[in-house]
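Predict the 3D structure for this chain.
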Amino acid sequence: MAKTALRNARVFDGLGLTEPRTVVIDGAVLGTDPAGAREIDVAGAALLPGFIDAHVHLERPEQLTDLAAWGVTTGLDMACWPAERVAALRTAGPADFRSAGLPLIGPDGLHATIPEMPGSAIVTTAEAAVQFVEARVAEGVDYVKGVAEAPGDGGPPAEALQALVDTARKRGLAAVVHAATPGAYHLAVATGARFVTHVPVVGRIAAEDVAAMKAAGQTAIPTLTMMEGALAFFAGAEGDHLANVAALRAAGVEILAGTDANGGSGAPVAVAHGASLHHEFELLAEAGLSTVEILRAATVAPAQAFGLTDRGEIRAGLRADLVLIDGDPVADLSATRAIRTVWCAGTEISR
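Done. Predicted structure below.
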């Protein structure tokens, strides 16, 4: 793979855009020596680390292509099965892929109605939850996911969710817990799970749960794009999703950008892969996050939170996952859509 030197790039360093500098793509990683490189003068364009969508659902290789076309170089999948499909997607590219594999669900919640959801996903005891995690570990998942529902809504019992989180921790894996109602959020936070994904679209997260998240160092992945779409199912409701994110931010809870992008199979709302992340940015801004906070929420923050130590920043030795943008996304967030070029592990992506 040829070496490329990007001259006069303003680099997003997690705090803002730097003065113009040179960034070297040396094979699949970022280098330091421009000698012998093909030189490209980007004339002050903004260069960002490849975006990370912290909540997607992937079924087909072309969805990885869709992610990359919009600058999303890593998709963190939150439910994919069977294990053979997960394995195939890991090498399908161009975007990188990580997965929770099969999610743990209850017997009577909405997830139990998803077409082709295997019965092995349904867990009703702590003992079965331990076995569930061990089965995911054997498959080589990157983290595990459980689905919390408010008491009486058909989700797994609290002791099963707790066993999922505890067993995952013992096995060195993070746990992600789905929570889309205030009651489910309370259960999810109480488990101590590293990540809580979604926010209630109707109803506020209890103040004590917000405070508990901050105290425990838990991270929220609100998926505002999905929650905005789901509002259509609540006739006459104005929606609390933005206010819930604002409350989390005010308390200092870490927030990551995730969309719940999916192919429409079994999902309440179809969300496009790649393009939706830029809409997620807009909704996070409406919830009160600054442009720098939003850009961090899709680059360095998810990389650090999910232990992806080889990406999320632009510095020598890390993966050459890059997005070249016309304009200044720190001053105008809509500039993230003005993508000129994307590189996934040093490979330039055709758009």
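The longest strand covers residues 3-11.
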